[in-house]
Write a structure and sequence with these properties.
about 110 residues, four-stranded antiparallel sheet, single chain, two-stranded antiparallel sheet, alpha+beta, 3 helices, Alpha-Beta Plaits
């Protein structure tokens, strides 16, 4: 079992969700987050004054999958999120030692769904 975490542009969320559904990955958690990568934020003009922000709005996806769904999940995220521009995001894959479905108390891969 793996936990796939992706940080993507907010504008790409609907495209990523669509690609995940096509890959039969239906269980996701979405959070709005702030952060920056190599681009170190952006400069914007707000009410005529130049603002130097260093944290950008991003979306964090957390997706628990069984091992056979790791690659399809990664490919779906890339397909939906990739623009070819700096700031497209990152994908992290972590090992999960346990998953428990609260309602039924099922454990392991069967609890993921």
């Amino acid at each position: 079992m793996k936990l796939v975490i992706a940080i993507i542009q907010p504008s790409r969320l609907e495209d990523v969700k669509e690609e995940l559904y096509r890959a039969d990955v239906n269980l996701i958690t979405v959070s709005e987050v702030l952060g920056h990568g190599r681009q170190k934020g952006v400069t914007e003009i707000y009410r005529g004054a130049r603002e130097h922000g260093n944290l950008l709005r991003k979306v964090r996806l957390e997706i628990a999958v069984n091992d056979n769904f790791v690659e399809p999940t990664i490919k779906a995220i890339i397909k939906g999120a990739k623009t070819g521009e700096t700031g497209d995001g990152k994908i992290f894959v972590l090992s999960m030692t346990e998953c428990v479905r609260i309602r039924t108390e099922e454990r392991g891969g069967i609890a993921i769904g």
